[in-house]
Design a protein that fits this description.
The complex is a heterodimer of chains A (501) and B (330). Chain A is α+β, with helices and mostly antiparallel strands and 501 residues long. Chain A has 16 helices and 11 strands. Chain A has 2 domains: 180 residues; 190 residues, no CATH class. In chain A, the strands form 2 sheets. In chain A, strands 1, 2, 3, 4, 6, 10 and 11 form a 7-stranded antiparallel β-sheet that branches. A 4-stranded antiparallel β-sheet of chain A has the order 8-7-5-9, with helices on one face. In chain A, a hairpin with a 2-residue loop joins strand 3 and strand 4. In chain A, helix 9 packs across helix 13. The longest helix of chain B has 14 residues. With 330 residues, chain B is of the alpha+beta class. In chain B, 32% of the residues lie in helices and 22% in strands. In chain B, the strands form 3 sheets. Chain B has a 7-stranded antiparallel β-sheet with strand order 12-11-10-9-8-13-14. Chain B has a 4-stranded antiparallel β-sheet with strand order 1-7-2-3. Chain B has 2 domains: 209 residues, ATP-grasp fold, B domain (D-amino Acid Aminotransferase, Chain A, domain 1), CATH 3.30.470; 87 residues, Dna Ligase, domain 1, CATH 3.30.1490. In chain B, helix 8 packs across helix 11. Classes of the chains: A alpha+beta (501), B alpha+beta (330). Chains A and B meet through helix 12 and helix 16 of A and helix 1, helix 2 and helix 7 of B.
């Protein structure tokens, strides 16, 4: 029988598991270690306007994912207003609407942006060139001259834009530029001139992020395209490049804020910089799940907490597999140690160990008496279950009376599993003697403690929870272990006498 | 204190570990479909009767808790008997009653049990206490074996049985398990019984171990093991080899055989997951023998398989050479 399909399956699982994990790490910046800190900006936009006793429609641009920043969460506070998020011309917008409003109105929009230093800029479609640009006299000649001047001193779109903007600067401002500036605003004018010269460009608005600043406004930038690439230019200085702390708020050449049915509208921003653990930053990541980004972060928080535990079970099971197949430790009940380890997570290790030993010891004494009563098996195990519950209740009450609150966590032990453990150990005691009980009980506890240590390791928790691909790697490992025909560690001891002569 | 050996040394000795046994032999040669025939001692018994293989006489079975009440009538007139779970494993739940005395049931160790104790034991068996996975079971009551007197001095209380590993129908390795005071009359090595490796060619003792350590004599009777010779050895091997066909070709099989004074070798039970302690008793790994058998063509009749094994697996006793060297030392 060929083992090829088996190794193909294992290889496939490994490749898929590693691939999925790396994908999550690269595209979603989920860090490999839980300790890493991530910078999160909390930005609040406040829209202010005076309503004119009638229907109001407010349309504001919203930031989207971009180079250096990723959108984590967003909230709005706008009592009485209808709200919709729209996608328009490649930009996101929020639309507030109300039938009747009067007086001063305030609308809030808050977003959390994750600073991601190594993020690649998402591809941006260059805007269409406006070919039907018509200038009135005498602006047409002024514009043509300015374009020609800058064109001659430039090599490509970017240098052309730089030279053009410098010609509007204070130092080199000539007659042409002064004339044009009397009629046009600087930003739209630049875009217009660039377009006329065949260079795609648009005006965008950005927010310079500084910690704990309030009442900030957006600054204007000119985004110039040269083939696949694009660059930002400061329309005042002609400086090329995007400052690290610039968050592009509106990047599709539209108005930032449009208010119908209101006057005196303006939008101001306040912001706050926070450092938070990377894991928490990942947790608040907006769910944009595709098949590849499949993650449990899209579940409600309560279910996430549940899954955090469920995803650890394979780790505990792996410990059992290693200890049984590679080491050869005997346990009472194959996966009972994993359940005990799960209980230890709730109770903490020392309390858990003491509680476990107390329950099993007292349970064994009582079970010993039950065996004299000549009961049927199911009835006897049920009697043990009730006994275990009684022991747990008693210990809880006692420890509470003595002020030991840790004792209360004893209720996290799986009672039915414990009862079966007691039953099995009791039979083992009768048949094989106390030595075998110690070996198997000790083996179970040792396995449980190692499983507990593995499952509470912060790194293991982080990896299993954030990288579902790890489950496939675990699967592949366990399949490989299931194929191991070599000696177990303890067999090296067991078969020692044979090799002696 | 260094009590560990290296994997290389074990491999050189041809020792098979648990993992290899499970994957390479049990997993490959034992069809799961056939397990019920072996795991259920009642089914094995009925099958053995069909194939003309002798087994201890069946006194009766108890299948319901109600039936436990009729145990007294069933046992009436039988002096010694054994109650065992049909689906037990590892010798668990086997109650041996040596004889009955004024209504009290005496175990080979001399412990007296009342009828209530015996009934409780049967009841425990029915509720699945000793069976694999705790499933409800049937209690099988068998006549006690009148074991061969010639072997009496090699055992303490219990009946010694002979375990033969049958691989693809070839008897590959054998040992005798002698119960001791430590093992409470049971013939399980991990409970303290003495394992004596047997030469496949002649049925004489090769080496003895207790608790995985070498022994030259029986710990309770003090009788030396070197002179141990199994009577009817060829018949016994043939009976063991025949179990291959009987079970529908279970490839890796442990057969437990006892020697009865009147009926000769009897099949006690079969095991589809025989343990590895037999390697300790023989001081040799199974690997080379199993490799040799795997190279043999299939379809030989049992007689040829036994002859092949006797020819290839013959060994000299270590006990005699030990005795000689011990004598020389004196």
């Amino acid at each position: 029988m060929s083992r090829l399909p088996f190794y193909l399956l294992v290889g496939l699982l490994l490749v898929m598991g590693i691939g999925l994990s790396v994908h999550r790490h690269v595209t979603l910046e989920v860090p490999w270690t839980p300790g890493e800190q991530r910078e999160v900006w909390e930005v609040e936009a406040l829209v202010n306007f005076t309503a004119q006793d009638g229907p109001v429609l407010v349309n504001m641009a919203l930031p989207s994912r971009q180079q250096s920043f990723r959108l984590l969460t967003e909230h709005t506070a706008s009592p009485g207003y209808g709200l919709a998020f729209l996608e328009e011309n490649g930009g996101r917008r929020a639309q507030w609407s109300i039938r009747d409003a009067s007086g001063n109105q305030q609308l809030y929009y808050t977003t959390q942006m994750l600073a991601t230093p190594d993020a690649r800029p998402p591809g941006i479609e260059p805007p269409e060139l406006h070919s039907d640009i018509i200038w009135e006299r005498p602006y047409d000649t002024a514009a043509a001259q300015m374009i020609e001047r800058a064109w001659n001193r430039s090599a490509d779109g970017f240098t052309f834009a730089r030279e053009l903007i410098r010609d509007f600067g204070d130092e080199r401002q000539g007659e042409n530029s002064r004339l044009l500036l009397t009629q046009f605003e600087r930003g739209p004018l630049l875009v217009r001139l660039l377009n006329q010269a065949g260079v795609p460009a648009r005006e965008v608005s950005g927010l310079l992020l500084e910690d704990a600043r309030r009442r900030q406004t957006l600054s204007q930038w000119v985004q110039v395209f040269d083939g696949e690439r694009w660059a930002l230019f400061d329309p005042a200085t002609g400086e090329q490049g995007r400052p690290d702390n610039l968050l592009l708020w509106e990047a599709s050449g539209q108005a930032v804020l449009e208010v119908q049915g209101g006057t005196n509208s303006r939008v101001t921003f306040s912001m706050l910089n926070r450092n938070q653990p990377a894991a928490a930053a990942v947790r608040s990541q907006l769910a944009e799940d595709t098949l590849l980004n499949f993650s449990i972060h899209s579940l409600p928080l309560e279910e996430q907490a549940l899954f955090q535990t469920i995803l650890l079970i394979p780790i505990g099971a792996l410990v059992v597999v290693i200890l049984r197949i590679l080491v050869g430790i005997k346990t009472s009940g194959t996966f009972m140690p994993v359940l005990i380890a799960l209980a230890f997570i709730q109770t903490t290790l020392i309390t858990g160990l003491v509680g476990f030993l107390l329950i099993v010891a007292v349970g064994l004494v009582i079970r010993n008496y039950l065996s004299y009563l000549n009961l049927l098996l199911v009835a006897r195990v049920t009697a043990v279950i009730i006994t275990v519950i009684a022991i747990i209740s008693l210990f809880s009450v006692l420890s509470y009376r003595f002020g030991l609150n840790a004792g209360l966590t004893i209720t996290f032990f799986p009672m039915i599993i414990l009862s079966w453990t007691i039953e099995r150990m009791s039979i083992l005691w009768e048949e094989e003697g106390p030595r075998e009980v110690l070996i198997q009980g000790g083996g179970s506890l040792l396995t449980a403690v190692i499983a507990f240590l593995a499952m509470t390791n912060p790194w293991v928790r982080h990896i299993t929870f954030n990288f579902l691909g790890v489950q496939m790697i675990l699967m592949a490992l366990i399949l490989l272990l299931g194929n191991y025909t070599g000696y177990r560690l303890l067999e090296l001891r067991r078969f020692k006498p044979i090799t002696e002569d | 204190m260094w009590n560990w050996t290296s994997p290389g040394k074990l491999r050189a000795k041809g020792i098979i570990g648990m993992n290899r046994r499970n994957i390479r032999y049990i997993g490959r040669y034992n069809d799961r479909r056939l397990y019920p025939l072996v795991d259920d001692k009642l089914k094995t018994k009925i099958l053995a009767q069909e194939y003309g293989i002798t087994t201890p006489a069946l006194i009766g079975t108890v299948a319901t808790q109600f039936g436990v009440k009729h145990l007294r009538e069933m046992l009436h007139g039988h002096d010694g008997f054994v109650i065992k779970p049909a689906k037990g494993s590892g010798g668990k739940g086997i109650l041996v009653i040596d004889h009955v005395e004024d209504g009290a049931f005496i175990k080979p160790s001399g412990v007296r049990l009342t009828l209530k104790d015996v009934e409780r034991h049967a009841s425990n068996i029915l509720s699945g206490l000793y069976s694999l996975g705790g499933s409800p079971d049937v209690a099988v009551v068998e006549a006690l074996i009148n074991f061969d007197e010639r072997l009496a001095e090699y055992t303490y209380e219990g009946v010694p049985d002979i375990r033969v590993i049958v691989f693809l129908g070839y008897p590959v390795m054998a040992m005798m398990r002698l119960s001791t005071a430590a093992s409470d009359g049971k013939a399980n090595l991990h409970q303290g019984a003495v394992g004596v490796g047997l030469d496949i060619a002649t049925g004489t003792a090769i080496r003895g171990v207790q608790f995985d350590r070498t022994r030259l004599d029986h710990p309770d009777t003090g009788h030396e093991l070197a002179s141990l010779h199994i009577p009817d050895w060829d018949t016994l091997l043939l009976l063991a080899a025949g179990c291959y066909e009987m079970t529908g070709l279970l490839g890796y099989l442990g057969t437990d055989v006892v020697l009865d004074r009147d009926h000769g070798p009897m099949l006690l039970e079969l095991n589809a997951r025989p343990g590895l302690a037999i390697q300790m008793a023989n001081g040799e790994g199974l690997r080379r023998r199993l490799d040799l058998i795997e190279r043999q063509p299939a379809g030989c009749p049992p007689e040829e398989r036994v002859a092949f094994a006797q020819h290839h697996f013959a060994r000299r006793s270590e006990l005699e050479s030990n005795a000689v060297s011990a004598a020389l030392a004196v």
